[in-house]
Amino acid sequence: MEPEPLVENGKINGQKTELNIRQLEISDHAKGFVELLSQLSTCPSLSQSEFEARFADLAALGDDHHIAVVEDPTLGRIVATGSIFIEKKFLRGCSSVAHIEDVVVDKATRGAHLGQRIINYLVDHAKAAGCYKVILDCTPELRVFYEKCGFEEKNVQMALYF
Amino acid sequence: MRSIPLIEGNLPIRPLEISDHKKGFVELLGQLTVCPQLTESEFQVRFAEVAKLGENHCICVIEDPNTERIIATGSVFIEKKFIRGGSKVGHIEDVVVAKTARGLCLGQRMVNHLVDHAKATGCYKVVLACAPELREFYEKCGFEDKNVQMSVYF
């Protein structure tokens, strides 16, 4: 069995590996994208065609729904992801608000600041899209992490499950 | 002295229409937050952008037939996810009831309407963010305190 990669000081197994952020692609289905999401929430497997259908739904929204991933090229696996969607409003002179969702970094790849890099990337996307703010919801324990990314606590999130 | 007709408590909730620009829709939003006037064409452009999303972005209003003014509004948009087997989540935003129309449960009716829309489109949950003072109102609508909302302004 292969040992788990040792991530230290931005290097994987002692070697500096480029961990670039890019947009989700169809081929990421075969690179463990859905499995990574299951580290965040209940995430049953999706068949290739289920994945493609959802991918197409989101691609139809263009820049208004952007899913970012980081692939570890040594493993051919997705090790981090986060998404942002742009909501168009009438208030504030027809403004737009960006919503960050589903941010997760692979447990085995933590320590390379991938979470903060993904957040910064998504925030830049929102700014480039002309949003006046970016919002997200998180558990109280993650407050400190998001404060490091420049966010501040604003409101309470409430939910109703069906 | 002409008596002012009371607003009925069971006014219909309907989708936003182009003509609502003339019925004070933008002014009503101004009771929620900063909301500069929009020209007719700015309103129409935004209306068309939202309409393109169909059932995935639903803005609803309540009109007072006596004044032909919009007295309540709320919106819900449907976010498609990969998690939970390709699920959907409803996000409620921009709920406001005119100051002159409070006490008629219009807010609760509006929120229930938006929740029903989310359920009908297959969402597994509806989320919203609110100031802590509104926690009790949304609990009455069936919501529970879940997480913290964080934001960054440009």
Describe the overall structure.
The complex is a heterodimer of chains A (162) and B (154). With 162 residues, chain A is α+β, with helices and mostly antiparallel strands. Chain A has one domain: Gcn5-related N-acetyltransferase (GNAT) (Aminopeptidase). Chain A is built from five helices and nine strands, in the order E-E-E-E-H-H-E-E-H-E-H-E-H-E. Chain A has helices spanning 33-37, 48-59, 91-94, 114-128, 143-148; strands spanning 7-8, 11-12, 15-16, 21-23, 65-72, 77-88, 96-105, 133-138, 152-161. The longest helix of chain A has 15 residues, at 114-128. Chain A is globular. The termini of chain A are far apart. Chain B has one domain (8-140): Aminopeptidase (3-Layer(aba) Sandwich). Chain B has five helices and six strands, in the order βααββαβαβαβ. Classes of the chains: A alpha+beta (162), B alpha+beta (154). At the A-B interface, helix 1, helix 2, strand 6, helix 3 and strand 7 of A face helix 1, helix 2, strand 3, helix 3 and strand 4 of B.
